[in-house]
Amino acid sequence: MAVLRALLISVLIVLVSFLGFAYWSGTPFFRTPHMPPSTAVGTTGVLDDAEISSKIKAKMVLDDYVKARSISVDTKNGTVTLRGVVRSVDEHDRALNLARDTTGVTQVVDELQVEAR
Predict the structure, then answer these.
(1) What share of the chain is helix, strand, coil (3-state, %, to 5)?
(2) Which tens digits make up the pLDDT trace of 68-89?
(3) pLDDT of 3
(4) Who has the most CB within 10 Å: 6, 7, 45, 109?
(5) pTM of the prediction?
(6) Which residue range(s) make up the domain with 16?
(7) Please, what is the Cα angle at 79 between 76 and 85, to 5 degrees?
(8) Contacts 24+ apart (CB under 8 A), 43-51
(9) CA nearest 71: which of 115, 114, 112, 116?
């Protein structure tokens, strides 16, 4: 019985010592300096034509009313040209609005055709 009590006290002392040292020394996360994440877009901060086209295409893919496969998006110096066939006037207007509301677009050229029914 005395051996069990001595073993239990020894384990308790080691555990309390370990927890006390961990509390006193802190964790490595708090001892190292941390920098905030970088928020830079790029070296110039200006979107190039491929990025603008990609953003517009992504908006069209995520939109429920625009059939992105039937529309091609070409961008040159911020001027976006939309070509293809759309199913309705609403889809036509929605595609134009998605392009116009994209950062970096200076002008939208409409070459979309509404499908005749």
Answers:
(1) 50, 20, 30
(2) 899 999 999 889 999 999 999 9
(3) 87
(4) 109
(5) 0.60
(6) 2-31
(7) 100
(8) 46/104, 47/103, 47/104, 49/75, 49/76, 49/77, 49/78, 50/75, 51/104
(9) 112
